[in-house]
Amino acid sequence: MSVIIVLLIASISVAAIFLFAFLWSVKNGQYKDEISPPVRILFDDATPTVQQQPTEEKNTNE
Amino acid sequence: MQLEKFYYDNKIVKMFAYATIFWGIIGMLAGLWVAIDLYYPTANLGLPYTTFGRMRPVHTNAVIFAFVGNGIFMGVYYSLQRLCKARMFSDTLSKLHFWGWQLIIAFGALTLLSGYTTGKEYAELEWPLDIAIAVVWIIFGINMFGTIIKRRESHLYVAIWFYIATWVTVAMLHIVNSFEIPFSFIKSYSWYAGVQDALVQWWYGHNAVAFFLTTPYLGVMYYFLPKAANRPIYSYRLSIIHFWALIFLYIWAGPHHLLYTALPDWAQSLGTVFSIMLLLPSWGGMLNGLFTLRGAWDKVREDPVLKFMVVAVTCYGMATFEGPMLSLKNVNAISHFTDWTIAHVHIGALGWNGFLTFGVLYWLIPRIFNTPLYSKKLATTHFWIGTIGIVLYAVPLYWAGFTQALMWKQFTPDGHLKYQFLETVTHILPMYITRSIGGTLYLIGAFLMVYNLWKTVAAGQLVANEAAEAPALPKVIETHSKQYWHRWIEARPIQMLIFSLIAVAIGGIIEMVPTFLVKSNVPTIASVKPYTPLELQGRDIYVREGCYLCHSQMIRPFRDEVARYGEYSKAGEFVYDHPFQWGSKRTGPDLARIGGKYPDSWHFNHMLDPRSMSPGSIMPAYTWLFDNKIDTSLTPAKIRAMQTLGVPYPEGYDKQANKDLEAQAKSIKETLKKDKIDISSNAEIVALIAYLQRVGTDIKAQSTANNATAITNNNN
Known about the structure:
Chain A: This is Cbb3-type cytochrome oxidase maturation protein. The structure holds two protein chains of two kinds. Chain A has helices at 3-27, 36-40. By secondary structure, chain A is mainly alpha-helical. Chain A has one domain. Residues 46-62 of chain A have low confidence and may be disordered. In chain B, the strands form two sheets. Chain B has a two-stranded antiparallel ribbon with strand order 1-4. In chain B, strands 2-3 form a two-stranded antiparallel ribbon. Residues 478-486, 507-512 and 703-716 of chain B have low confidence and may be disordered. At the A-B interface, helix 1 and helix 2 of A face strand 1, helix 5, helix 6, helix 7 and strand 4 of B.
């Protein structure tokens, strides 16, 4: 069952990616606030101004 | 803080939405067709392309990767922009992603109908398309991570976590499961053999369900359900906990598809344990969705969108309760290989994925077209027809699966099997008919949706670029160095691309590992020999016609199966099987010991007209096998590919293979002649007979004493 080694390497490297993501998310303060994020998504298009703009977005602060 | 003005790209959302609807209808039509094939075998119109074995992969691939796949992208492209307060990273990548994916689907359908298949369920597409899938998936990844990096909202909402996990894991699953060695510009052999192939395939197969049909749709649920109900998710903390628990547990549950097979026992137990644990995070997600509607059930009464979502989440809960139960070995002993599994997955596919997609479409199309839905009433009708359709689909199949399994296991008082296999099939045909009625209702519902959305679109006008405003991310968040790194990569998309490619090249390193490991794939039963060239050609025909979709090649160590089919299957018997053909469903009997059971002439007549040999059979006739010629030009390439994979053909055998092939074909032709059958020795049916007569015969050559040692060796 040598293929188990392949599956383990693959699974564990993905687990490592997830662990890194988890540590980053905690450090970054992603979970500090559990109240406003679920509420905030409800307000994002409160004022949908209908407007046509064909060109790609330009980021002004870069 | 200065507000930045930007525009959401709704056009790409519209394109994915249309593709979702289009492929959804195609996939469901294909599903209905194969459902009818099961009780009316001539519904294949006598054509190879429309026979069950080729249409069924079209159905599964269309529904999973085309319908749900485009549904995922529709949901991600809509929600990610709004959650990140940014337009998608690149319009060009968005378009490449869209058209690339549609081309893969179209070519996928064509190649599957033409019989080009790897023979591995839900991974049937051949190697050129596998490469294309990887490329398009990377394009999607760059586009998604690019958007996340240039976001204006520092917090990553839980839906985004689900999208990220989906992308990472699907990339890995696809690459590992698609190791294959091409022998022509469109065909290949699986790199792994037998038990190893089975383990990799179901590790992939199970996680395709987990990370293609579940996690992205949970992300979609976490965005669209609160939006549709206009209230925040019940518990944000629960969503975080259940996300991390779910992705950690899911990846280990694959072996539950191989209980009681030749897979080592410890791997089976491991799969079972993780499957049981999965119940908790799965139900965490379901309850979180349902509790979001607490105090808002009056809205569910009014709003068809919420109706669809409630049933979707409920079906998710039912399917994820049933999944762990089916992973218990004693339950699996009954459910496996029957229609129970088919019912189970359709609760997920029709209920969870289908209904959530419908809910999102009804919610999203009016918004991006800036007009109310054409008819709420029609949408509600769709909901009820669809729900009744699901019930009429699933209940008969549960019944059929349970009945058939019990009939298989029934013995008479004097110790003989009570039912012939065919009796257990004809007994459940009424259930098959009812199931297709359920499927028809579901499809009618989908057509109502097409009409409803078409009228909606006609009344509105697409807001292709929706204006939005948000402040930029604050320059200083926490650690300065991290901020610097972010900013650096943000302004340099090319470097970003290179880094992504490096990350992906790690997949190539993993790719090297099996090359070395393949050598350790030593045959453990001495009498098991490689297939002869003719048998190999016959096996490729077996794979091409999708025989494995109705016939297993795996006798489990149960009294009834040993009595019905013969000695139970051993791991060492499959070491030259690239790909493995264990199957997952017994619409027809198991074929693991078919070799030598019937004369050649029986197989000949049975393939020409199944009902002449077993009256009442629902197998289609394979008339084209009698006209098609064996493609001997590929024999040397096939032998060489097998040698690369470690199959011990003698050196230089590829040059001699066709001579051996002809000799064996002639001898089969002679045998058939004795039964007054005249057929050209290079007809495909001859190769198929050669293969069928070989299957499972190798260990019969052994003495009983040898056999005992082989079994012990095998368990290692």
